[in-house]
Write the structure tokens for this entry.
Amino acid sequence: MKIRRYLGSNTQEAILKVKMDLGNDAIILNTRKVRKKGLFSFFTKPMVEVLAAIDEDYGSKKEKNTSSRDEKKEVMKEEKSTPKVSEKDEKISELESKVINMESMLQKIYEQFQGNGNKQQAAASQQQDVQTVLKQDENKKESSKVLQLFHNNLVKSEIEADIAKKIMDVVREKLGENASMNEAASLIYKLISGMLGKPETINMRNDGKPTVVIFVGPTGVGKTTTLAKIAANYALNYKKKVGLITADTYRIAAVEQLKTYAEILGLPITVAYSAIEIKDAIHHYSDKELILIDTAGRSYRNKSQFEELKSLVLASEADEVYLVLSSTTSMRNCKEIVSNYSFLKDYKLIFTKLDETLTNGIILNTRHITGKKVSYITTGQCVPDDIEIANIDKITKNLLGSIT
Ligand SMILES: Nc1nc2c(ncn2[C@@H]2O[C@H](COP(=O)(O)OP(=O)(O)OP(=O)(O)O)[C@@H](O)[C@H]2O)c(=O)[nH]1
Ligand SMILES: [Mg+2]
């Protein structure tokens, strides 16, 4: 018994194919609607599948008949005479047994078809699994590349290696290696801006007494210029009564420098040569709302100068101390500077000369090392314009860098 499958756009077409191939003796075992395989099969019209069977001998009989057709033409004509009754019965019982065989075969074929279908399905899903794993792998590679790019940016921004690592460790812990560019960027942004904290400027006293602020820091970082910028802003924009004191008596030019700013701004200025004179000067300004004290730049390597500075800061009983640092300082030197100024109980950070650097790494590093609040940043030599309250958003974006 031969079993074959025929496809047609409709039942008639499929049955015609059966008859063309197997002849009129073919038995139709089953018909069903099927769809072609493929990505867009769902959108195509279903086909009709016909499962047809024919006696195994049919083909050979057909061949034999065809090959000896001419020779036997005459004989066949003779044989066409009506068969005997016993022969008919024999044929019927033979057909019956064939049908029974066919049924069981059909069952087997059906089961086989099912099995194949399952196997095909399993193979297809296996293939899909492999593709998913490959895709995940690809994504993983892509995302770990994303995290690597962000890490590189932090290092390029001159963020200390241990701080950059800490940030990326949190990112990996919270988002995993599969973090997308946006997820990673927004988390790193949050972490950095959180580390930088909210900037804090001068907290004015509200008990009627003047708020005393003293500026300290290494030589030439921009203490005097920054003090002049702040004085101008409080006097001109906030309309505060401001008094200036300079304790930088090491250089005549230093005193003259602040005197010039005071004259331009129309603010009083007092020169203090010692810790006691500072106390007197502050007392003298009791009618003022804000007193700003300039100090001489101190090399952090000069111990005796540092002792003098300590006594000045103590004598001033300043409400606030500002450590002025230039953003052009190397991180190595900056660490040494802040360790030398660790005698200060509390202070806020001012970063100058941001116009001279590309990266803002020093701000995050120093904030992280000292735990002190960031306040102002200065961006040029122009008094009073080139100063602003540290813009955490801008600094964070600068540190985050861009990824293309
Ligand atoms: N580019 C740039 N230059 C600045 C900035 N702030 C100050 N300067 C310049 O830095 C130089 C030193 O400024 P000063 O204000 O005298 O510095 P200082 O810390 O008072 O110096 P000493 O009193 O000698 O310790 C001056 O030429 C300033 O104009 C800034 O934000 N950007
Ligand atoms: Mg100065």
Notes: The chain has three domains: 2-72+85-126, 128-196, 211-400.
